[in-house]
Design brief:
Blueprint lengths: L6 H8 L17 H7 L19 E5 L19 E7 L6 E8 L9 E5 L8 H8 L2 E3 L5 E3 L9 E5 L9 E2 L9 H18 L8 E6 L2 H17 L8 E7 L5 H6 L1 H7 L5 H7 L3 H14 L1 H22 L2 E2 L2 E5 L9 H7 L2 H7 L11 H6 L12 H6 L3 E7 L7 H10 L5 H6 L3 E5 L2 E9 L2 E6 L6 H4 L1 H13 L2 H15 L1
Parallel strand pairs: 4-7, 4-9, 9-10, 10-13, 13-16
Antiparallel strand pairs: 1-2, 2-3, 3-7, 3-8, 5-6, 11-12, 14-15, 15-16
Helix pairs in contact: 1-10, 4-5, 7-8, 9-10
Enzyme class: hydrolase
Keywords: Carboxypeptidase, Disulfide bond, Glycoprotein, Hydrolase, Protease, Secreted, Signal
GO cellular component, one term: extracellular region
Amino acid sequence: MNHPTFLPLLISLLLLLQPPPSVALLRLPKTPLQLINSVNLFPKQPVNVVDLSTEPKLVEWKLTLSNLTSDGDGANIETLSHQAGYYKIQRSYAARMFYFFFESRNSKKDPVVIWLTGGPGCSSELALFYENGPFKISNNLSLVWNEYGWDQVSNLLYVDQPIGTGFSYSTDKRDVVHDETGVSNDMYDFLQTFFIEHPELAENDFYIIGESYAGHYIPAIAARVHQGNKAKEGVHINLKGFAIGNGLTDPAIQYEAYTDFALDVGLISQTEHNLIDKVLPICEAAIKLCGTQGTVSCTAAYLVCNTVFSAIIVIAGDINYYDIRKKCIGSLCYDFSNLETFMNLDSVRSALGVGNIEFVSCSTTVYQAMLVDWMRNLEVGIPALLEDDIKMLIYAGEYDLICNWLGNSRWVHAMEWSGQKEFGTSREVPFEVDGSEAGSLKSYGPLSFLKVHDAGHMVPMDQPKASLEMLKRWMDGSLSKHSDEQKKSLVSAI
């Protein structure tokens, strides 16, 4: 579909329109009623709020899940440690952060992995039940074991953050978080308390992983943990690495890649590409102002730069911008209705200890509060981590538009660190699972970039077996070793 004469007018009009969907499964409501119904920052009733001087920092419940016994390989819900809990955020007025913990089905000595979903404002339960958690929700709302759950190789934490996401809440508006300083401090304090309460896990290897807007969260949290370790602030957290799937990390580079990716996959024509690109100089200037001038200019940068994405969507029609092979159906472009139904069952809320708090998949309050953070570059703190040999894996499904692999590849290659040249010249090799190519991999030192075949924005949902194998090899240090073996086989075959 071509609209060459219409596009200049379209781009001008889009500057005045609502911002585009969230980076991670969120569309802004269209009516005031939808807006009110979707906001879960302040619950209908205060839940678990007591005298702050006597309340423990961490309150956990052992999960009792019905209709679930064994996974067929011996793992049993009765013998594994599965818990849900609330953490009282130390730097807050009245904030409680909700989390799940699932013991590894293999060994409690396995690494501890914390998973963060993006949005901003989307619950990590989306990943828990649709991507890489121990269970999936069946159509009759019962739980079934996930054959490729990441608890096969790790102890898993899922956290609803920032405050107002999922079951996390506050009764004080001053607890709304607006930037990565707030996010990283809250998460560092939570991790300190979690490992104090679970000393048997404190010496395990620790990894921070997530997707989408977590491309902002994760570098900030990893840097905060590393800083705390160096300063000997509290419990040493054995941080070994961090991974981001289809993330937003360096907006200036990634927004510039939108039109190139859309042209490459046939969503727009060359003429449309060139017209939309006329917005990029304004976008780049706005991003530079955001980096120096603060909140107002950051919001302006968000509005200006997102006209690039919005113009592509108008031309492409009703595509699923998380997986361009599909059509966008429903408010999240996927049908995740079973999640909200399941999480709001009285029996489930009782098992989780969340009282009367209503669960929603994504909070527009959190989304809007973080708009001033959106266009900031979080790549800047990563080189120092790499220099200290903290591993980083950037992986991306090849059919995602909104955080596409091309933009991610470009910022990773542009990042200045001691291994930049060697990483740039390293050979791209197949990532093989069961003898078939599941992706293409580049690695040097602590840095790896993996483009995953036949996957969109949510790689563990689209390619569960490949994503589990990716996690396992990356954590045990064999991801690049497999690559070296493949290189040798290629050379010997010549």
